[in-house]
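#onboarding

Welcome to the new folks! Below is a worked example of what a typical request in this channel looks like: someone posts a single protein sequence, and someone else replies with the predicted structure as tokens. Don't worry about understanding the tokens yet, we'll cover that in week two.

Example request:
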Amino acid sequence: MILEPRNRHILVIPEEAEPDQQEERTVLLPDNYRSPQSPYVAVRVVSAAPDVSQLIISGDVLIVERSMLKEVSFNGSIYNLVLENYILGTLQSEV
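Example response:
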């Protein structure tokens, strides 16, 4: 089953940040400890609703606020959506 976004939403896949390569240290932390995350996340566009006003194509990498990413779980599948208003920028590869 494929979700087709509507109402100015964009279907995206969050890009996972690579873990820092640091030397091994033994530090005891609480079980519920989560390392601080950036308030922003890079996402790759899968598809966009037909009424999105910006030129966004599949494969584009966007920067959005992490809190604006909506995770929708339906029939065992997880979809990530973001409203076009919450796009902060597009990452361009250097040539």
